[in-house]
Write a structure and sequence with these properties.
This protein has about 300 residues and is α+β, with helices and mostly antiparallel strands. The protein folds into two domains: about 80 residues, Phosphatidylinositol 3-kinase Catalytic Subunit, Chain A, domain 1 (Ubiquitin-like (UB roll)); about 140 residues, no CATH class. Helix content is about 50%, strand content about 20%. Helix 4 packs parallel to helix 7.
């Protein structure tokens, strides 16, 4: 009997403990639920995720016709609206390798102006199908090549006359007659003049038109090289006589030459004793051929 009372008492204790634990658990659950509901209400209404907008890319189809025969040469498809005429020329070159991009001239209508490479397709498109007319511009060279050829040639040509080579002057007469100091001064001024032009071409000026027909290179070189040969032949001739007014005329001419040099300066990096140092080179205005050259 005593043992049975003990077992009953222990079972009641266990029930009481279990009931206490369950009540505390329920209270904790209620508190957590109340906290969660309060947090949700304070956060406000839930916002739906914004729908993704799928942008449609517009493509154009470009039909290229011969400007003379009006026959179709090729069709350039899948051209984006942000593409430029330069991009169209690149694709045209892939379809027709005989014409490289600088040789291709594209027009909206026959006889109209050629489209610049920077123009976008969207700016000239009236519909999804664009018709352009092709003109072969012939062999092209860059304007930088033209300027360098025009200015480098006179430097070399003048030195040939200055050295009095046997193919130009008589050797005996050249050895018998010494050069006047003004001949050396003329050579120095001539070299400074064209070296300045070369530095401007490489470092100062930017050319708006990238290419030009090959005939412009031939005409420019013929003018510069021919005029240099004509001057150098007489100045470096063994029978050359100094100016009429002597040193006074030479001094005034040298001062005028130096005053023509403008005040603009170009900074150039050049190696000096194992490190790089800055020095200034006086430059002049290079010719502005139809707005092709501008200062950078």
């Amino acid at each position: 009997m005593f043992k049975s009372h003990k077992s009953l008492a222990s079972e009641r204790k266990k029930e009481l403990v279990f009931k206490g634990v369950s009540r505390s658990t329920v209270r904790n659950d209620l508190r957590s639920f109340h906290t969660l509901s309060h947090f949700v209400l304070s956060a406000g209404p839930l916002k739906s995720a914004p729908a993704l907008k799928h942008s449609k890319t517009a493509y154009f189809e470009i039909e290229i016709l011969d400007a003379q025969t009006r026959k179709q040469i090729c069709i350039v498809d899948k051209v984006r609206q942000t593409s430029t005429i330069h991009d169209v020329k690149q694709k045209f070159h892939k379809a027709c390798p005989n014409w490289y991009p600088s040789r291709i001239g594209l027009q909206l209508e026959c006889g109209g102006p050629f489209l610049k490479d920077c123009i976008t397709i969207q700016s000239v498109a009236a519909s999804s199908i664009i018709t352009l007319y092709f003109t072969d511009l012939g062999r092209q060279v860059s304007w930088t090549t033209v300027f360098l050829a025009e200015y480098t040639g006179p430097l070399l040509i003048y030195f040939l006359f200055y050295l009095r080579i046997s193919y130009i002057y008589d050797i005996k007469e050249s050895a018998r007659r010494l050069r006047h100091p003004v001949v050396h001064l003329a050579c120095f001024c001539h070299c400074i003049h064209y070296i300045r032009y070369i530095l401007e071409t490489l470092l100062v000026h930017k050319v708006s038109a990238e290419h030009t027909p090959l005939k412009n290179l031939i005409k420019g070189c013929a003018l510069y090289w021919g005029f240099t040969s004509w001057i150098a032949y007489y100045v470096n001739h063994p029978r050359y006589t100094p100016p009429l007014y002597g040193n006074r005329q030479i001094t005034i001419s040298a001062i005028n030459f130096l005053e023509i040099m403008p005040a603009s300066q170009v900074q150039i990096i050049t190696p000096s004793r194992g490190c790089f140092s800055w020095f200034h080179v006086q430059t002049t205005h290079m010719r502005l051929d139809h707005g092709l050259v501008s200062r950078s």
